[in-house]
Sequence to fold (139 residues):
Amino acid sequence: MIFRECLLGELLTFQRGFDITKAEQSPGDIPIVSSSGISSFHSEAKVRGPGVVIGRKGSLGTVHFLSCDFWPHDTTLWIKDFKGNDPRFLSYFLSTLHLEIFDTGSSNPTLNRNHVHKVKVLAPKPEVQRKIAAVLTAY
Fold:
C-alpha cells in the first residue's frame, strides 16, 4: 500500500515559534520567519534547516520551506520532528490541507497545533514522498 490513512501528528510534530522583538535582533543572515514569510534577519538561529514553518497567528496555514537554519517567530508553528518524512514533501503537502479552516481565534485568527495534529490525512510512504517532492521541486 503506497498511501496510508493517519493523523497529521503521526507524520510530524509542530512546535510553537520563539518570540523576538526588533530591539532584540542583531545584524545577521539568519531568516526570522513570521506567519507571512521572512520578516527580517538575525545573527542567531533557533532551528537547523531544512525546515517547514506555517502561519499560526494572522496568516493561518501559510507554508514556508527553508533550506537553511532559521528562527521561527512566535506567530508560527514549525516542524520539530519530521518522523522520517521528507521535509520538502511535507511543505507541499501542508499547503494542500487548507489549515486555515481550523481557526480557533475569536478576534485574531489562531491555529492550535493540538487541533492540527488530529487532522486525518492520506499520506504516501517516505520513499514515495521523496519522488513526489523531486518532481514538484523541478517545476
Summary: Residues 63 and 95 are 6 Å apart (CA to CA). The first helix runs from residue 8 to 11.
